[in-house]
């Protein structure tokens, strides 16, 4: 399948309804594809069923039917933070000519305690939620095990944050667009769950993203699409520092594509926490286990490095509207492949990878995209 | 202790209690790790509704089998430290244990933390659940049948003989015991385990004196060790229904009424002192919050088991953990809840607020209640009448119930309706005029008709001879139609 068009709202603190956000992103994607909504044969949307955002719209697929004036198959696919990727993976399996894939979240709608709790519901209820395991804590324990085992340091994590903030500075759709953040600020930010500091955590946002998947040949092709799952809680896995779902999904996507990790030019990774980006360098096969720190220390994943990662600013600094994130990663890759990224443009992108995670390594999609020569 | 469910044939492990292996269909056994080390720590500085007190630590614990779990604590540990729960050192200690999908293990652990119940294998036991009204287990009004089932299994494992155990309860005055026991699922558990369910209201009772007060106590409760298994709930009248409140249904109906008439602040404490041998293991797995203790309350997933030899200490620690105000009937003058020893979990690590009850709310938005500590009979009557008028709007009414009323409680209140004999008498004593009175011994349909008229009519309507004829017809019709 090919990508016919992409669209996304700015990720921020806007107060539009979820359907208005999807509408805006969809309109951009339709314009990009030179389509109108009549050309769409099916819709796959991702949005978590939040209690705190006040919308009370559980049958969101039919809210979309109303606002898009469409009577076609519309499915909702949820996988919390990995929802966008899961929606794309699902759409790619459907046998329709043109499928609209959208992700949306209104996360910034309540006080931070409620938002923390809302996200915490993705953790295991009895062993984790009742023990205070919010997502920063969940990832902090993983990060600590990883650092103990492989010698990564808080400074390595800070470098990941700094890189992604620098990229977001150049991305008009990012929440941190034109907002400078220094390495010093990152290193001195308050600890939220040791060893993770505030700037090790992704920034919550509201927003939507959309793409049109098509059987018609375009300039961007999805050549690899894989989804894998793992046990919900990291403590239940044999090795907390390496996430099987990422490894298996990556292996499958590379197999479908017939390429190896070294062929990838850029990647959008799921940096919900800076430590996750480091672990993902390894699990996606870009370096051997334990060498993730070297990738960031040597600047390999910087925008001017050998393999830039999160040129959009990532979840860290572009923002993380949960279900919208996975589709927004594809938006960035398509824009990079079309040389439409302005100051953050990476030259000559032929292959790119998007990794989207639900939970702490529980549901992972990996998509590999190829630039189609004209 | 860290528990995993493991396949005896292929050694696959689960964090959930499964019965058969989905791979090889092998039998499952429990793997219990007791040699536990700290392998990771994070200090969390952001609050969430269930964890409002910060900072707190989460330990990553690992046992001798390599099984791991997270554990919240307010204490500081180092990686490599041994982790062990300390047993109680004082007799009034309260054990609080989190249920990890296994109520049986949680009950067992709570008992062990209190240095065992010390049961004589030939001793006789009365298990006292809370079954106050016919309600399904999901409503969290009565002790959960799974909780009773787990407790009975623990008792049998401790060597107690089935024939020496009875489960005994009487519901709130005005509710049917057999119906309540059946709908709550308790009766089925009794049958399954081969133990008798006994209706306390049928007696016999024995007079027992305490500080000049005579209680007619269910004789079996005096002859047997009582294992008190209340469900922990909010209660709009009492603050909470818990360990002490559950014991109040070990007396006959007349004593219950008298205890409320003479002020439960005093009588509850006296009763708790005269039941000789009580060990409480409270069901806070799915307790209740908000407008408890009946259908207006909301189930609250608390996932906890509380245990203690001291019912008042247990109630106090439940209130501390759920950040509810400790009712005055729970504590006497010498009682300091801060000094109660808590084992199993740290109190500060457990604390989060659940919704408390609003004292003057009824099921009907236009009917408020002014409660002079009414007995369960009037309380039940008030609930039944007001809930049946929901949907009918009208002029606000203030229902007065109970006898512990003072003039100040009624100052500025209009449209007072005295419900029940105690309130009627008390208002007469206080020389306060109610717009009408609803007596207890009047037919329920007549009570309902009067309340409906009061709600929908300005002034002071009364039941007329025409109403009486209508009521007779209605009653007759309902008998004919069955």
What attributes does this structure have?
heterodimer, A: 374 residues, alpha/beta, nine-stranded mixed beta sheet, 12 helices, 11 strands, B: alpha/beta, elongated
Summary?
The complex is a heterodimer of chains A (374) and B (482). Chain A is 35% helix and 18% strand.
- The span between the termini of chain A is 16 Å
Measured distance between first and last alpha carbons of chain B:
57 Å
Whole-number mean pLDDT of chain A:
97
Please give the radius of gyration of chain A in angstroms: 19 Å
What spatial form of chain A do the alpha-carbon principal axes imply? globular
- Biggest interface and which pair forms it? A-B, 33 and 30 residues
- Assembly form of the protein: heterodimer
Number of strands of chain B: 23
Describe this structure in words.
The complex is a heterodimer of chains A (374) and B (482). Chain A has 374 residues and is α/β, with parallel strands linked by helices. Chain A is built from twelve helices and eleven strands. Chain A has a nine-stranded mixed beta sheet, sandwiched between helices. A two-stranded antiparallel sheet of chain A has the order 5-6. The mean pLDDT of chain A is 97. In chain B, helix 1 packs across helix 2 (145-157) and helix 2 (145-157) runs parallel beside helix 4. In chain B, 29% of the residues lie in helices and 27% in strands. Chain B is α/β, with parallel strands linked by helices. Chain B has helices spanning 103-113, 145-157, 177-183, 186-193, 219-223, 243-247, 253-261, 264-274, 311-322, 347-350, 376-388, 407-410, 421-430, 444-456, 465-481, and strands spanning 2-7, 13-14, 28-33, 36-44, 56-62, 68-73, 82-83, 94-98, 125-129, 165-169, 196-199, 205-210, 213-218, 225-229, 231-235, 239-241, 278-290, 297-308, 342-343, 367-372, 397-402, 416-419, 436-438. The termini of chain B are far apart. The longest helix of chain B has 17 residues, at 465-481. Chains A and B meet through helix 4, helix 5 and strand 5 of A and strand 4, strand 5 and strand 6 of B.
């Amino acid at each position: 399948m090919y990508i016919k068009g992409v669209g996304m709202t700015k990720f921020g603190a806007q107060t539009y309804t979820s359907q208005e956000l999807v509408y805006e992103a969809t309109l951009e994607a339709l314009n990009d594809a030179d389509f109108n909504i009549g050309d769409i044969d099916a819709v796959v949307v991702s949005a978590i069923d939040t209690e705190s955002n006040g919308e009370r719209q559980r049958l969101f697929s039919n809210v979309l039917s109303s606002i898009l004036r469409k009577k076609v198959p519309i499915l909702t696919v949820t996988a919390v933070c990995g929802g966008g990727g899961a929606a794309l993976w699902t759409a790619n399996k459907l046998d329709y000519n043109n499928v609209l894939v959208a992700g949306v979240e209104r996360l910034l709608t309540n006080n931070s305690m409620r938002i923390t709790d809302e996200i915490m519901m993705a953790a295991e209820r009895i062993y984790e939620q009742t023990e205070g395991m919010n997502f920063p804590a969940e990832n902090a324990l993983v990060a600590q095990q990883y650092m103990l085992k492989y010698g990564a340091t808080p400074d390595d994590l800070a470098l990941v944050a700094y890189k992604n903030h620098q990229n977001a500075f150049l991305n008009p759709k990012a929440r941190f667009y034109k907002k400078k953040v220094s390495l010093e600020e990152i290193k001195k930010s308050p600890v939220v769950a040791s060893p993770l500091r505030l700037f090790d955590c992704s920034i919550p946002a509201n927003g939507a993203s959309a793409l049109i998947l098509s059987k018609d040949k375009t300039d961007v092709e999805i050549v690899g699409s894989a989804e894998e799952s793992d046990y919900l809680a990291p403590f239940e896995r044999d090795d907390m520092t390496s996430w099987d779902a990422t490894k298996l999904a990556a292996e499958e996507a590379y197999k479908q594509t017939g390429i190896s990790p070294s062929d990838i030019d850029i990647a959008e990774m799921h940096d919900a926490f800076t430590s996750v980006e480091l672990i993902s360098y390894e699990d996606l096969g870009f370096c051997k286990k334990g060498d993730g720190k070297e990738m960031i220390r040597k600047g390999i994943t910087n925008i001017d490095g050998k393999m830039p990662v999160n040129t959009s600013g990532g979840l860290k600094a572009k923002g993380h509207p949960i279900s919208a994130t996975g589709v927004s990663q594809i938006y960035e890759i398509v824009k990079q492949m079309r040389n439409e990224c302005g100051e953050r443009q990476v030259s000559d992108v032929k292959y790119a990878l998007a990794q989207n995670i639900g939970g702490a390594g529980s549901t992972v999609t990996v998509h590999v995209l190829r630039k189609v020569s004209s | 202790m860290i528990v995993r469910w493991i396949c005896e044939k292929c050694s696959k492990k689960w964090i959930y209690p499964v019965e058969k292996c989905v791979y090889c269909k092998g039998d499952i056994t429990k793997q219990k790790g007791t040699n536990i080390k700290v392998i990771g720590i994070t200090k969390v500085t952001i609050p969430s509704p269930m964890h409002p007190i910060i900072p707190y630590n989460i330990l990553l614990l690992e046992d001798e089998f390599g099984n791991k779990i997270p554990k919240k604590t307010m204490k500081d540990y180092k990686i490599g430290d041994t982790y062990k729960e300390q047993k109680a050192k004082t007799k009034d200690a309260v054990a609080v244990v989190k249920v990890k999908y296994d109520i049986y293990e949680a009950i067992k652990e709570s008992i062990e933390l209190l240095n065992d119940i010390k049961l004589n294998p030939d001793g006789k036991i009365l298990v006292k659940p809370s079954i106050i009204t016919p309600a399904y287990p999901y409503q969290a009004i009565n002790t959960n049948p799974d909780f009773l089932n787990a407790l009975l299994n623990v008792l049998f494992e401790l060597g107690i003989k089935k024939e020496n155990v009875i489960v005994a309860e009487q519901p709130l005055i005005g509710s049917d015991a057999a119906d309540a026991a059946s709908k709550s699922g308790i009766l089925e558990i009794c049958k399954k385990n081969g133990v008798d369910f006994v209706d306390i209201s049928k007696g016999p009772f024995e007079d027992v004196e305490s500080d000049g007060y005579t209680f007619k106590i269910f004789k079996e409760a005096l002859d047997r060790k009582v294992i008190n298994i209340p469900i922990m709930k909010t209660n709009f009248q009492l603050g909470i229904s818990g360990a002490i409140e559950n014991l109040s249904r070990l007396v006959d109906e007349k004593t219950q009424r008298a205890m409320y008439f003479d002020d439960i602040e005093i009588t509850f404490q006296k009763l708790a002192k005269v039941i000789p041998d009580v060990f409480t293991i409270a069901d806070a797995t799915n307790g209740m919050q908000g407008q408890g203790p009946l259908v207006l309350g909301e189930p609250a997933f608390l996932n906890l088991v509380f245990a203690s030899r001291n019912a008042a200490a247990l109630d106090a620690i439940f209130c501390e953990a759920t950040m509810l105000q400790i009712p005055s009937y729970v504590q006497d003058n010498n009682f300091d809840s801060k000094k109660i020893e808590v084992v199993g979990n740290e109190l500060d690590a457990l604390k989060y607020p659940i919704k408390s009850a609003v004292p003057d709310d009824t099921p009907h938005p236009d009917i408020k209640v002014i409660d002079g500590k009414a007995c369960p009979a009037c309380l039940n009557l008030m609930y039944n009448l007001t809930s049946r008028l929901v949907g009918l709007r009208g002029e606000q009414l203030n229902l007065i119930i109970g006898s512990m009323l003072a003039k100040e409680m009624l100052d500025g209140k209009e449209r007072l309706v005295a419900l029940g004999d105690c309130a009627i008498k008390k208002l007469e004593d206080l020389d306060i005029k109610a717009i009408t009175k609803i007596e207890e011994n009047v037919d329920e349909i007549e009570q309902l008709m009067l309340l409906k008229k009061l709600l929908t009519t300005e002034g002071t309507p009364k039941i007329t001879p025409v109403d009486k004829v209508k009521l007779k017809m209605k009653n007759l019709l309902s008998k004919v139609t069955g």
